[in-house]
Structures are given as C-alpha cells and as structure tokens.
Amino acid sequence: MSRQPERTQPPSERFLVCGVLFPDQPDEAGGPLSEARGLVQAAGAEVVGAQGGPLIQRRKRPDSSTMLGKGKVAEVKEAMERHRPDAILVDNDLSPGQVRNLEKAWDKRVVDRSELILDIFATRARTAQSRIQVELAQMEYLRPRLRRMWTHLERTEGAIGTRGPGETQLETDRRLLGKRISDLKARLAGIERHRQLQSQIRDDLFTIGLVGYTNVGKSTLLNRLTGADELVADMPFATLDTRTRKWKLLDGRIVLLSDTVGFLQRLPHHLVASFHATLEEALSVDLLLHVVDGSHADASVQMAAVEETLGGLTNREADVVVLNKVDRVGDPISLQILREGRRQEIVHLSAHTGEGLDLLDRVISNRLDARSCVVSVSVSLADGKSAAALRNAGMVLSEHTTEDERLILKLRLAERLLGNLQRMLGVAAEFKVLEPVRERYYVDEMNA
Ligand SMILES: Nc1nc2c(ncn2[C@@H]2O[C@H](COP(=O)(O)OP(=O)(O)OP(=O)(O)O)[C@@H](O)[C@H]2O)c(=O)[nH]1
Ligand SMILES: [Mg+2]
Questions:
Q1: How many Å lie between the centroid of ligand 1 and the Cα of residue 219?
Q2: Residue 32 near ligand 1, beta carbon < 6 Å
Q3: How does pLDDT run across 283-297, given as a tens digit for each residue?
Q4: Which of 9, 43, 150, 198 is the most buried (most CB within 10 A)?
C-alpha cells in the first residue's frame, strides 16, 4: 500500500472575539458579534469561546484608553486562560493607543475590526487595481500605528542603508511609508484614467449596476442573467473587482450589467476611500439595483446599512430593490415586512432557481422604455449604411418604404443616442420624435 505524504497545513490562528456594542448598533439575529465571528472565519482563522454573551459590553461611549471597561478587560483575560487564543479580535475601531494598552493588558496580539476586514480584502484582491486599492488602505491604516510596530527597533538607530541624514528609524519608516502611499495613489490614478476612457467607449448602452450587502447573491444574479462565470461563494467579499457584462433582455435589447464589491456595516473608512473611484463608477449607472438576501434574518439591518453607505457615496437611492433567495424564504410575511414603506419597485426572485427572473427582465424593459423615445426616421433606400446604423442603435418597431424610394423606420431608442445619430447621419436622415422620454437618465441629470 502506497503511503500518501501527509500535507502539513499551518494550523489556523485561534481568535477570541470581544467588543463594545454602542446604542446605535442594531442587534444581530444570530446573537451579538455573530457577523464578527463570520469575518474571523472568512479570514481563515478559528473562533474560540462561546458565542456572544459575556465578552460583549454595552456602553454609551468607548473607554478612551482601552475601549472596553476595566472589568471587561479582566474578564477577557480570564477567558483567555480558558481558551488559549493566539490573538484577540475587538470588533470596534481602536486607536493606536488603545491597541497598545490592550496588548499590554492581555499580553497577546490585538486585531481591530478595520484590520481584520483589510486582511480579508487583501487575500481576495485579484486585479492590479484592487490590489493597489487594498494596499493603499492598509498603508493608510498603518501610518498612525508605525510607532507601535517599531518601538522595539527604535534603539537600532543607524542601521545601514535605511536612514536619511539625522533621521531616527521611525522617521525613516514614516518617510518610506509616505512615499509608498503617494506611489500607490499615482498608480491608482493611472488605472482609473484608463478605465474612464474605456467606459466612455461603452457610452451608448444602457447601464445597470448591482449593489448590496456582501454575500446576498449579486454575482450569482450577474452570472445567471449574462452567462458570466464570476466567482460565487458563501463568504463575505468574494467579489472585489467590478465586472461588467452584456445582458440580453427577452425583447432582444442589450444592456450592460455591473457587479461590485459588497457592503458591510461599519466598513473601514480607509477602504471606502481607496475604493471610491470604483464605487463611484459602479454607482453612476442608468439604473441601480439593490440586491437583498430576502432569506437573511438581518435583511432589514443589511438594507439600512447599504442605504447608509450609498447615501455617503452619492445622493441617490437604488431604483429597484431585488429580494433574492426567495427559494429559502419559508414565510412570505418576512418579505412583506421588507417591502414596507418603500417607494421603489420591488422584485422577488431566486438567482439560484431562476424563479422571478422574467419579472426582473420586464421591469428593466419598462424602465428602458420610459427612458427612451420613439422616433420615425427617413433615409434613402440606397443608403444601406445609415439604415444599418439606425437598426443597431435602437429597437425597430416598424418599417416601410415609400414611393419616392425612402425607407421609414420607427425606432425606440435611448435619448442620448438620438443626438449622436443626428450628428452622425447629418442630412442623410430626417428625424421626427413621435414619443418623447418619460423618465430622465440619471447620468444625463448628473451631466446637466
Ligand atoms: N438559496 C439561494 N442561495 C443563493 C441565491 N443566490 C445566491 N446564493 C448563494 O449565496 C452565496 C453568495 O452568493 P454570491 O453571488 O457570491 O454573493 P455576492 O453578493 O456576490 O457576495 P460578495 O461578492 O461576497 O459580496 C453563494 O453561496 C450563493 O450560492 C439564491 O437565490 N438562493
Ligand atoms: Mg460577488
């Protein structure tokens, strides 16, 4: 019998999870800190200790030196003796001083919420752009914390090759970090300019963006509608890179559908800042769909978190709400509750089984209709080129030829294409608007 060599995997890090709950933080259906525990697992580590309970502290304000109060810090220390973790996650944003004090009190590595989320993003980033975005956020996070990392090195002043004239080690590190940050920003700006150019090329198609909390099924929906093959996984932040794919509607029209990075409550602000351009691009679409996991016990909290993040990034709200995963919803009442008080159109569907996708298709078609005009165009029958350009630009509703050798096309097309076509075809074509647009494009409003 042949023996398989044993694979040795490094043991995963063991985390004890604790944190402060402030009055404005909503309760989680899975118990306090349940999302934080999920994040630790998503980072490839193991959670030790009982769910929720004693390692939570409800406070109005953080303790300025240790976030948690003295008594709670001592309780965590006791729990550490029982569970022997490798590190402690505090599910709040800690100041560098708070981390230092807690590490001293517990004699263990302390990780705060931002650092954990940045770490997950770092392992998921695939493209050059997202790698730079994550690194930039990590460097910005690190900048005020340098002292903590290098205090043990401050006595090794004068290490060869690392020092500028008269600098301490810390000053040198600060300078190098500052330089790295400006390099990353410059590279990112270059990539963003390139992307902007590319997206201008696609200006003629109707664009739709998917936004939503992480893990709600945005990529599954994109794959299902466009035949794409994006990574789908039951874990937070599977998608970090914006993807755009063509979606052919049932009436034959083609629109562009984009996926984007999922949102989360209390996302680190450095991360939002460095993903700002990506998010902005994902949000400046004609139609914004907010995808919700309708089967999640915290669906309404997640919806509110997405709306808040959207509000911070742009002053627009989603046009259509998609309640996904209805195949897992036992009680339709819960969906009813999610619908209450909303002005937007709401579509129930399952990206998994395909149920409800035809309804979404119709909703999109209707919105396209509302945002397009109906025109009649007359071109010479001999002018095949102009006729082809017109047929490509919109949906042909009818066509006929006249005795004086002209082709009359009745077309439904996006208003912004009308101007382009008129410029392109010039005197070769005569346009008459039969039905004006009923609803403006968001992008046009932005540019107005
Ligand atoms: N039961 C059920 N599961 C679904 C449905 N849609 C997606 N899922 C599952 O939900 C999990 C997350 O799906 P994704 O498509 O990766 O979610 P996402 O919103 O793109 O997530 P991030 O990219 O991580 O923000 C996967 O395990 C999917 O198989 C659905 O309609 N029904
Ligand atoms: Mg995804």
A1: 7
A2: no
A3: 888 899 999 999 999
A4: 43
Largest Cα–Cα distance in the chain? Answer: 95
Distance 233 CA to ligand 1 centre (A): 6
Residue at token pair 């401050």: 154
Cα 350 to ligand 1 centre (Å): 10
Residues 7-49 have pLDDT tens digits of 566 678 999 999 999 998 888 888 889 999 999 999 999 999 8
* Centre of ligand 2 from the C-alpha of residue 123, in Å: 15
Question: 130 CA to middle of ligand 2, Å?
Answer: 14
Contacts of 168-172 spanning 24+ positions with Cβ under 8 A: 170/146
Give the position, in ligand 1's atom list, of the atom nearest the Cα of 328: 1
* Whether the Cβ atoms of residue 443 and residue 286 lie closer than 8 Å to each other: yes
- Under a CB-based contact definition with an 8 Å cutoff, are residues 107 and 87 in contact? no
Name the residue of 220, 226, 296, 328 to mutate for ligand 1: max ligand atoms within 8 A of Cβ: 220
The matching CATH number, chosen from 3.40.250.10, 3.40.50.300, 3.40.50.2000, 2.40.50.460, for 205-368 is 3.40.50.300
For the record, the structure tokens of 114 come out as 């931002």
Q: List, for residues 381-428, the tens digit of each pLDDT value.
A: 999 999 998 988 888 999 999 999 999 999 998 887 888 889 989 898
Is 55:75 a contact under the CB 8 Å cutoff?
A: yes
Rounded to 10 degrees, the C-alpha dihedral 142/191/317/348 comes to: -100
User: If DSSP codes are grouped into helix, strand and coil, which group holds residue 52?
Assistant: coil
Q: Is there a contact between 86 and 15 (Cβ–Cβ < 8 Å)?
A: yes
End-to-end CA distance of the chain: 76
Q: Please tell me the number of the ligand nearest to residue 217's CA.
A: 1
Q: Is the CB of 15 under 6 A from ligand 1?
A: no
- 214 CB under 6 A from ligand 1? yes
Helix, strand, or coil (residue 290): strand
Q: What is the CATH number of domain 372-447?
A: 3.30.70.240
Give yes or no for a contact between 219 and 242, defined as CB atoms under 8 angstroms apart.
no
CATH topology of domain 14-119: Rossmann fold (3.40.50)
Rounded Cα distance between 253 and 368, Å, is 9
Supply the pTM of this predicted model: 0.86
What would the DSSP string read from start to end of 53-100?
Answer: GGGEEE-SS-BTTTBS-HHHHHHHHHHHHHH--SEEEESSPPPHHHHH
- Distance from chain centroid for Cα 313: 12
How far apart CA 303 and CA 292 sit, in angstroms, is 7
Q: At 106, which helix (H) or strand (E)?
A: helix 96-106
